[in-house]
Amino acid sequence: MTGAAGPPTLRALPPPFRLVALDCIDSTNDEARRAVGRGDGHGTVIWAAEQSAGRGRRGRTWVSPRGNLHCSLLLDAGPDLALAPQLVFVAAVAVRDALAELAPAAAFQLKWPNDLLCGGRKIAGMLLEMAAPLVILGIGVDVALAPEPALYPATCLARAGSSAEPFDVLAGICRQVDCWYDRWRNEGFDMVRQAWLAHAAGLGQPLKVALPDDSVHQGRFIGLDAAGALVLEEGDGRQTRILAGDVLAL
Ligand code: BTN
Predict the structure, then answer these.
(1) One domain, residues 189 and 212
(2) Ligand 1 atom with least separation from CA of 48
(3) Ligand 1 pocket test target in 22, 25, 66, 70 with most atoms within 8 Å of CB
(4) 242 and 134 belong to one structural domain
(5) In a domain, 11, yes or no
(6) Averaged in consecutive runs of 10 residues, what is the pLDDT profile of the chain (250 residues)?
(7) CB proximity list for 227: less than 8 A, separation 6 or greater
(8) Integer distance in angstroms from the first to the last C-alpha of the chain?
(9) What is the position in ligand 1's atom list of the atom closest to the CA of 122?
(10) Is 56 near ligand 1, meaning CB less than 6 Å away?
């Protein structure tokens, strides 16, 4: 099922990252969990050219063709495991910065909780899973192809004017994750929260959010709280914090 994707010597990542390059795997998140079981730690990066069972949030399928980027990073969750979910926002700002470097003319925006949009269409998604004391940070970027997901229209980096290859995207993401992860460990979440809000799609605008029980909340998107919850101001001025759900098309 697995095989090397290119000579490892030509495919190195800067410390603290250590690349495991595979040709095809079920899901890089699943392989990352197996790597934890083998004793791998912070900085391990599982990269697969193709996934046969790529997963998105809430058990959705993540279509994972060759030409796009599918990777999972193992990161130390830090001393307080309750704060580990903040890492999905660390990842989101890091992926945004990396793609903005590769396609400087494109307009990238972050969609709560863990999507990256380009010109209003989804270009990347993140899936954070716990493997205490590590987190598995799964990142999928549509590089060459834009498979249409069920919930949102999609685009890809090639359409945004970049000729970057998946490995270039991976290397850029690792550089940015290293930088934002260190800032999160040293300075805390608020600076990440501010950076996320600076690029948030729909801030100050009316928004509809579908909750896991399929009920829909409607209100004005006024912020992100310290727990990473979306803050909505509803019609009567009441503020509602939403910890899990899907923002419907903006
Ligand atoms: C989402 O938007 O719902 C999250 C998508 C996350 C996809 C990535 S691709 C690499 C890693 N392996 C998986 O199976 N999923 C994540």
Answers:
(1) no
(2) 10
(3) 70
(4) no
(5) no
(6) 47 92 97 98 98 93 96 97 95 98 96 94 96 98 86 91 96 98 97 97 92 89 92 90 82
(7) 85, 241, 243
(8) 39
(9) 2
(10) yes
Ligand 1 pocket residue status of 29, Cβ below 6 Å: yes
Q: Which domain does 139 fall in, by range?
A: 18-197
Number of domains observed in the structure of the chain: 2
pLDDT for the residue 149: 59
Q: Determine whether the shortest distance from the Cβ of 138 to ligand 1 is under 6 A.
A: yes
Ligand 1, atom 11, residue with closest C-alpha: 138
Question: Which one, of 224, 126, 111, lies nearest residue 176 by Cα?
Answer: 126
d(CA 62, CA 25): 13
Instruction: Evaluate whether residue 210 is within a structural domain.
Output: yes
Task: Note whether 93 and 176 are same-domain residues.
Answer: yes
> Residue 171 maps to which CATH number?
3.30.930.10
Mode of pairing for the β-strands spanning 230-233 and 216-224: antiparallel
CATH of the domain at 228: 2.30.30.100
